[in-house]
Amino acid sequence: MEKSCSLLVHFDNGTPALANEIKEALEGNDVPAKIDAMKNAIMLLLNGETLPQLFITIVRYVLPSEDHTVQKLLLLYLEIIDKTDGKGRVLPEMILICQNLRNNLQHPNEYIRGVTLRFLCRLNEVEIIEPLIPSIMSNLEHRHPYVRKNAILAVMSIYKLPQGEQLLVDAPETIERFLSTEQDPSAKRNAFLMLFNCAQDRAINYLLTNVDRVPDWGELMQMVVLELIRKVCRTNKGEKGKYIKIIISLLNAPSAAVVYECAGTLVSLSSAPTAIRAAASTYCQLLLSQSDNNVKLILLDRLNELKSSHKDILVDMIMDILRALSSPNLDIQRKTLDIVLELITPRNVNEVVLNLKKEVMKTQSGELEKNGEYRQMLIQAIHSCAIKFPEVASIVVHLLMDFLGDNNVASAMDVVIFVREIIETNPKLRVSIVTRLLDTFYQIRAARVCACSLWIIGEYCLSLSEVENGISTIKQCLGDLPFFSISEEEEAADSTKKPQVTNSTTISSKRPAILADGTYATQSAASETAFSPPTVVQGSLATGNLRSLLLTGDFFLGAVVASTLTKLVLRLEEVQPSKVEVNKASTSALLIMVSILQLGQSSVLPHPIDNDSYDRIVLCIRLLCNTEDAVKTIWLKSCHEKFVQMLLDKQLRETEEIKAKAQISHLQPDDLIDFYHLKSRKGMSQLELEDEVQDDLKRATGEFVKDADDANKLNRIVQLTGFSDPVYAEAYVTVHQYDIVLDVTVINRTKQTLQNLCLELATMGDLKLVERPQNYTLAPESSKQIKANIKVSSTETGVIFGNIVYETSNVLERTVVVLNDIHIDIMDYISPAVCGDAAFKTMWAEFEWENKVAINTIITDEKEFLDHIIKSTNMKCLTSP
Predict the structure, then answer these.
(1) Mean local confidence (pLDDT), 30-39
(2) Which domain of life is it from (predicted)?
């Protein structure tokens, strides 16, 4: 079995040193060789070897060494080796060790004294410790603080042993006297820690007599004081008042660690608004003063916890929290925005949105590499503010529309979706948004953003001038028709069908050709080869974005162009009195659609037009050739009504999610209610009075009662042994993300005492046991809770198996009870979650998710089958029903 040791040593199993080689090196006079040999011996012992032959060699050749490293390694060796026999009696050869330890405790060098005292903290054998007690106590008065602080730790660990109180009867009094005279901060801290652990009343007494000096104590000491206050107040809630003053005085300490601990202690002890406000403002100050990103993330987590129970207090600090956006780290920015968005109220929304607007403008500088991602987060944050409070949309919508042509497609897509939602929810902004969109449309470079913008143009251009501008903008962005030039061969074929014009003069037919840079040049047909294939007409460099996207073969966008033009022409019929103008617009729209179809069926592009887009464009052509009122209603009204319905569904889903997150509180009808106004208030501080009110409120609203999912808990209990076994065991399995905790209950069902009872566990798969549970003695018919931690390195299915081993007094050999296997299933790692459409699409693009799985099922309804999958895989459906 592996041994435990206070030192972690990396050990390469490949080349273990042989015991004989170690022995030779130890017997020599070469100090570096001796050090290596000691290290090898320690490594072998830690890995389960026994090496009994080395003990005498070490006593003879290593004990007398004066080298500090050798002495340190000797103490590590002594820590690991077995000091008792099978029956628990100390081995006789340990007397040799005892004499050496006494010499070390009286050594002139303070380092040797200090490490020896440190070693004694890890000794449990009373027979070895007892003769050393006078030497240990004398070290409390040594001139060097290093020795004194280690002597206190040794006294504390000896006092904690089962017979410690008999060995050191007056230790607490001695340490208390020591504490009143000691000047060194770390020795003082250790002394206070000893009183805190071994004689709590003395520690409290010392603290209360020195209340005014607490702010001047060192950082280490202040941390122990806070720990003591937490412990005392948990056991005796009535004494909170005495200590909260100390905590508040420590909020101004120079050490960031102490201030952070103070804030945490305040929150855990008091729910009074004054205390919570002090803690929250402390977290905000630390958030700005600390440069470490991990510290900032932890502070944001603390603020997030406060937000769930004290939202109203944090609302006043929203601008302080927003200042954390100055950090360049995306995780910090994301967390800050998440907290802020839940603290927005009608009172502070304008200020927050203006702040976010400034941050968006900063991202235009392009100094940081992740500006695009940060801008996207800001746009999403502004979007959610504008949905909750539509009146702020006017402040930001025009600024954000400048980013429609952003190179980061995701952030441009967020902007266009935001605009689409705002134009519906804020009718006042419709005219200005449409005008701005038509002005900036030519800057848009992404097909998806173009498609969404075209939909907005088709849906919200309502007046005559807007419709005409919409049609002309689309025409400009498509450039001149056709999209490709026909080859000479086809021209010749065409010309045979036409009446030929003869003239005595030779006419060289001039037609445009495209140069390498995309501009036109005139070229005579005679100089071209007889058979040139059809070539794409790129247009000049100023030609619009729609043309360049169509020439990459994006016919879905072509279909969107066709349906937008159809909507605009149908609307023109309603708003334009002149039929001539309507026919003109309709003809040019038909020409554009036919040109797109021609491009799709030509050999110019590698892929022909897809069937869906083809059908859609043909439908638009038919519609413009023959318009009916019923069809008009569908195109101009029904589509819009469906969009409004979609927005309402989305809002409903979001409110349901917020409700689900809110704390559910339960209260029993016979629970006691204290009437605050009828209570005696003698000797209570303002903070305690506030606390009383808060506790009553919580009791009345049932916030104290956390409703545990008991039925779910019972499902996680695994029976490990049979009912007829002498030892019955069952485990409650808890799976956290990378940890599995087994809480094993072991019951002795015999009439005998079971000695050295040990739960031996082993794992298969990517699981690793963190620590081996220790040995226990179990009285007849008694039970014991044993905890085992297991680390998970991947979400594969794994198995935990093992035995319970024990001895009884009348049987010499050990008895083994084999346990049932515990199967850790991948389902334990999956919990339902929510994810936005854009984030989902990004993840879908990054990973290879799709795997085809053959399904054998008797379910015939898709909805029922989807519900079945969601239930059995413990997932959540992202789209609304």
Answers:
(1) 90
(2) Eukaryota
